[in-house]
Amino acid sequence: MSFQSERLIIRPTLEQDAELIYQLMNSPKFIKYVGDRQLYSVEDAEKYIQDKMLPQLHSLGYSNYSLINKKNGAKIGICGLYDREGLDGIDIGFGILPVYEGLGYAFESSSRIIKAGFEELEISEIKAITNKENISSQRILFKLGFNLKGTIMLPNENGELLLYKIEK
Q: Into how many domains does the chain fold?
């Protein structure tokens, strides 16, 4: 299932998006705030898509989505709904390539994914987690209507993360 917003085509991430995943997951902010996924090549990114993203898409019908600019077809980032280990429920996440940061794409795509989650995928609440130092993500979550619920520690992660929630 794909979605559209004013400026974006939002479609499931597939193997053909390996270059986007490789670039995004190796950007300095992604590594600092999300973590090093140890993707050292486009081939590693393709395997990551096959092993981490596609199984959830096939089992739940949603997962990670690639964000594509309607005007020029540029792949600008990702947004998705995740069934994350150590977190009870579904959470939203987003990442934008550095060249496209600050242009409203994270908010625009997240708004559309939340709407789809509530209206089309029948999810009753969506959570979000973020690094305590990631002020820009915290601002986006607040603007989206999320409420801070506390902190959480996830398996195989270093440090506490802020936990947010929004209900249908």
A: 1
Instruction: Tell me the pLDDT tens digit for each residue of 108-139.
Output: 999 999 999 999 999 999 999 999 999 999 99
Residue 111 lies in a domain: yes
- Whether residue 89 is contained in a domain is answered as yes
Supply the pTM of this predicted model: 0.95
Query: To 5 degrees, how large is the angle CA 10–CA 45–CA 123?
Result: 40
Structure tokens at 27: 């950007």
What are the residues whose beta carbons fall under 8 Å from the beta carbon of 1, sequence distance 6 or more? 12, 61, 62, 116, 120
How many angstroms separate the CA atoms of 161 and 6, rounded? 31
CATH label of the domain that carries residue 64: 3.40.630.30
